[in-house]
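Recall that a protein's primary structure is simply its ordered list of amino acids. Everything else, from secondary elements to tertiary packing, is in principle encoded there. The following example makes that idea concrete.
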Amino acid sequence: MAAINNLAQLAEASAERLGERLCLEIEGERFTNWEILERGRRLHAAMAEMGLARGGRAVTLMMNHALVYPVFQAIFRIGGTAIPVMPQAAAAELRYVLADTGAQLVITDVERLPTVREAVAGLRHVRHLLVQGATDDPRATPPEIRLDALLNYAPRTSLPRIDAADVALMLYSSGTTGRPKGVLLSHANLLASAAAVADASALDSWQGPRTTLSAMPIAHIFGVAIMNDLLLTPDHLADKSHLVQMRWFDPERFMALIQEHHCTTMAAVPTILAVLLHHPHASQYDLSSLAEVICGGAPLSVELAQAFMHRYPCRIREVYGLTEATGLGTANRRSEPYRPGSAGRAYLNTELRIVGDDDRPLAPGERGEICIRGPIVMQGYHNRPQESEQILRGGWLHTGDVGYLDREGYLFVVDRKKDMIIRGGENIYPAELEAVLHQHPAVAEAAVVGVPDPVYGENVVAFVVARPGARVSQSEVIDHVCRLVARFKAPSQVHFLPALPKSNIGKVLRRVLREQAASRPQTAC
């Protein structure tokens, strides 16, 4: 078989190798790998006719849906770049991505169509909207086309030239400056990622059925990784493993699916574990089939991990990574003993080191910045050459996270990127929210911090100084934020101060604000 250097070839080769098999179940519908591939071929033909070609860009704004996998396959087959945006995004956030990328297509669903229409207004480079659940409207600007009707196209089986270095995926990640940056991930990056995950999972030695449950959005690197990993299913699991995908996380439905399908594996962020552990109806469901939990997206406390494994006898495999490294970095391998508090060792073909402020490597046990090198590391940021050069200096990805390695190479993460908040596995950057808060006419100054939360990991708290003579309430501020950014980023609390605490050079003292936030009642607004 010819060498595989892109995701389209991998999908074709996987289908040929495994034969037709049950691959995906979502919302009660079941699909084989061949059905997904055939749908991808048909959408490939349709999108190519609309002008999407190698190097072209298509934005997806969709809830998890049976057509999401074929949509991604179609874009990859064309040699285009898929740009997934979280479905909760506000119109202003989506418009920024569209303008920054010059995307030609937007693929969405009818629930998000009003947001998309607002975002694309006046953007001439957007040629078509492909909408699941809507009817055709060729008179709209841009024309709106019913997505599932494109499955009537004759399938296109031939592939154009697609190089391993071609950008397959662009995921937007806000930086500490608040300016979202497009992370450029090539076919080579994603192929290396899938191989690394397969190695860490040691599936060649898995005995019995393996049914995985996931509620991870395909707009997130975690969800994309799960999608691609299906293509590397070992031969001996071809007829006894598949993925059960949820549209969104609902705790009771999640537990019911584990019971119904006898799920052996689940993908989760720590928030999901906390919700399942403390859910009042958890005892009504049989989760005894669960053997393995792959947990990432945010730090997992030792206390939560041990409490979950005590209640549900299973193995938790904590992983650490970031979008700039295709979501990877380190993993607790299935073939190695669990080490409490550790995020495991470096993935296959990946190097890890801890450096000091001068970028010199530190000895085991010394705390410093976590750096990653290997084929999983991004090409850089879209249209951000200086920021790309800075974060990739010396050939290493500088994560900004703080940790240490023990003498056996196990990573312990002790801090995160400065000021970043992780709520339910989603990264939230204070500078982005502060810029939004400053757009309110009554706000003179604003600062955002995270406070610990037993379920979500962290919650967002805003401190606001009102303009002289202005009157504004907590609910007004939160509503303002929700109009401009995704709701999950909005503060749960807004505290009003006469002035923000600052250092003698005028820098906001976030440490003081965190202490104040932690000491105040955190009742829901």
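The longest strand covers residues 443-453. The two ends are 59 Å apart (CA to CA).
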